[in-house]
Design a protein that fits this description.
This protein is of the alpha/beta class. It contains 9 helices and 5 strands. A 5-stranded parallel sheet has the order 2-1-3-4-5, sandwiched between helices. Helix 8 links the parallel strand 4 and strand 5. Helix 2 packs parallel to helix 4. The longest helix has 26 residues. It is globular and about 55 Å long. The chain starts with a helix and ends with a helix. The structure holds CO-5-methoxybenzimidazolylcobamide. GO terms for molecular function: cobalamin binding; metal ion binding; methionine synthase activity. It comes from Desulfoferula mesophila. This is Corrinoid methyltransferase.
């Protein structure tokens, strides 16, 4: 019988050795991969963030929790990838985490969801300077540039990246979509001129499809 609470606890407590088995058992018992991710793993990471903020845990514990989540995601990944494997490419996305920010789990989830929805995605990594977003968007003929930002100190870099895309000759070809815990719609869209903002990976797919006129 699937013990989804045990998955949440394993991520939250950083029980990396247990997580793959727990996730596999849950999948074998018929649990929905998206439910495991959204209702248990991401919730666990929110708890981890709250404990970090309250100074009950520190960076190493946060890191171990992140690695545990990643190990669990690796079990789910092939299932989500298979959902997208038969579809034709519906658009091209270049995505990265903004300069100064090394958080990658949320961005990688967005990548997974986009790929499973038929997008070709170029994941250009973390700590990405504005000019690299522009360069890679040109190189890959992107329809969308996706920016992920988890730190409030990333705000100026998010703004600089949006400005760099809008100042380039990509401006009328490419739409910029932003997301991540530190980013609000007000800041990204209203103040910085991004074309879209998404709250989670499912919303990212929906927002990008809307911007491309695919809905
Ligand atoms: Co960091 N960290 N961290 N951290 N970390 C946060 C973000 C923090 C909120 C924790 C806290 O204090 N409560 C806080 C930021 C505070 C702030 O700026 N206001 C923080 C801090 C302070 C730091 C350091 C500065 C700590 C330090 O060193 N003193 C440091 C910074 C390092 C750096 O980047 N330069 C740091 C380091 C780390 C670790 C390396 C230990 C680790 C990251 C490991 C990794 O990513 N490989 C880590 C972790 C794990 C977290 C928390 C706990 C969890 C992040 C996560 O993976 N969540 C986080 C607390 C929190 O977010 N509640 C925290 C799960 C993930 C699925 O969610 O990333 O939000 P998320 O992605 C979601 C949505 O946001 C959205 O969809 C995703 C899926 O639903 N989304 C998009 C994301 N990108 C999108 C793009 C889109 C659309 C949607 O369109 C393109």
């Amino acid at each position: 019988m699937a013990d989804l609470q045990a998955i949440k606890e394993a991520v939250s407590k950083g029980k990396r050795k247990d997580i793959a088995g727990l996730v596999q058992t849950a999948l074998d018992d018929g649990a929905d991969p998206n439910t495991i991710i959204n209702n248990y793993m991401i919730e666990a990471m929110k708890e981890v963030g709250a404990r970090f903020e309250a100074k009950k845990i520190f960076v190493p514990e946060m890191m171990i929790a992140a690695r545990t989540m990643q190990t669990g995601l690796d079990v789910i990944k092939p299932l989500l990838e298979a959902q997208g494997s038969q579809k034709e490419t519906v658009g091209t996305v270049v995505i990265g985490t903004v300069f100064g920010d090394l958080h990658d789990i949320g961005k990688n989830l967005v990548v997974l969801m986009l790929e499973s929805s038929g997008f070709e995605v170029f994941n250009i990594g973390e700590n990405v300077p504005p000019e690299k977003f522009v360069e890679k968007a040109k190189e890959h003929g992107a329809d969308i540039v996706g920016l992920s930002s988890l730190l409030t100190t990333g705000d100026p870099h998010l703004k600089a990246t949006i400005e760099a895309v809008k100042a380039s000759d990509l401006a009328d070809k490419v739409k910029v979509v932003c997301g991540g815990a530190a980013v609000t719609r007000k800041f990204a869209v209203d103040q910085c001129g991004a074309d879209g903002h998404a709250t989670d990976a499912v919303d990212a797919v929906k927002t990008i499809k809307q911007l491309m006129g695919l809905n």
